Amino acid sequence: MKIDAVFEGGGIRGVAFAGAITAMEEHGVEWQKLAGTSVGSILAALLAAGYTSTEINDHLQELNFKDLRGKNWINHIPFAGNLVNILLHLGMYKNDYIEKWLGSLLQKKQIRTFADLPDDKLKIIASDISSGQMIIFPDDLNRYGMKPSDVTIAQAVRMSTSIPFFYRPARWKLANKSKAYIVDGGLLSNFPIWLFDVENPRHPTFGFRFLKDTIEADAVIPTPIHLAQNIIKTMMQAHDMRHLSDETRDRTIQIYTDSITATDFLLTEEQSNFLFESGYQAAQLFLSTWDFEAHKRLRNSKNTTK
After folding, report:
1. Which one of 127, 160, 162, 184 is the catalytic residue?
2. What own/partner pairs with CB < 8 Å and gap ≥ 24 does 211-215 have?
3. Would you tell me how many other CB atoms lie within 10 Å of the CB of residue 207?
4. What does the CA dihedral 161, 165, 166, 171 come to, rounded to 10 degrees?
């Protein structure tokens, strides 16, 4: 079965996607167009490069999650360190580890920039907070006077995964000498399931997202940093949840992640195994009832009532 796939953002919970894509490939799924926001962009990029679910899971097992929280000496200043980094660098931590890790894996497949992939194979979502606009890589590069060969996929993923205030925004120097500040794509669309939609699809677009009954935010807000983080969390999670239709849910694998949050970088082996198994079981359950023809009838009925 050929499918297009869109992966939601969700930080460390992306381990669950490894389980989901394992189940998909066991059922003979062939990946066509791929897209993702934040951690979803990592999975989309690796699949687009030709990595299998087994290879992706192996590489995720090797990943040192602690290093994802790139610290400098300022972070070690008690109480004030994180605030100082926000004031100086607009984010508590560096986010260059994921770019180096992913860039190395893509290089093994002789892939560096978007020009090394077929047209429309991969799309990555980020947010330009300088202009208040969503960026779809590589489609929107012409807006910045660039071509697909000018930006590496690893750079785009770094931008897409830069959670505001938690990570420093990516600073993009443009040809006109101005700067664009790029952050997590989830700020504007954490689950862009609409990205590959056409009027009469030859194959389905499946969405992969995390099941959240409520908005994930801290009940206690003791500092301005916590307030800012909660505002961002609410924006990133509520935006797409409000627009999920019956037609969207029908083609989406929803993965339960319990109380694990996007920035739980001290993930235990038990939690990692739970996420993988949850993703695997969610995909298995979804595929056991999936009916493309029924989905198209549902979609058409929704379109005619608009």
Report:
1. 184
2. 211/254, 211/255, 211/256, 211/257, 211/282, 212/237, 212/241, 212/257
3. 26
4. 50
Q: For residue 97, is pLDDT > 50?
A: yes
The secondary structure element, H or E, covering residue 134 is strand 133-137
Token pair 């949850």 in the structure block, residue:
278
Catalytic option among 38, 53, 162, 189: 38
Helix, strand, coil percentages for the chain (3-state, nearest 5): 45, 20, 35
- Cα torsion through 197, 191, 18, 169, rounded to 10: 130
Distances (CA, A) of 204 to 11, 29, 244, 293: 26, 11, 17, 10
Whether the Cβ atoms of residue 9 and residue 239 lie closer than 8 Å to each other = no
Say how far apart CA 292 and CA 248 lie, in whole Å. 13
Give the pLDDT score at 234. 55
Q: What is the pLDDT of residue 25?
A: 97
d(CA 150, CA 176): 15
Encode pLDDT of 193-248 as tens digits: 999 998 889 999 999 999 864 445 454 445 555 555 565 555 555 554 555 667 78
Q: For residue 294, how many other CB atoms are within 10 A of its CB?
A: 11
Active site residue 184: yes
For tokens 């862009």, the residue is: 192
CA geometry: angle at 90 spanning 85 and 96, to 5°?
A: 80
264 annotated active-site: no
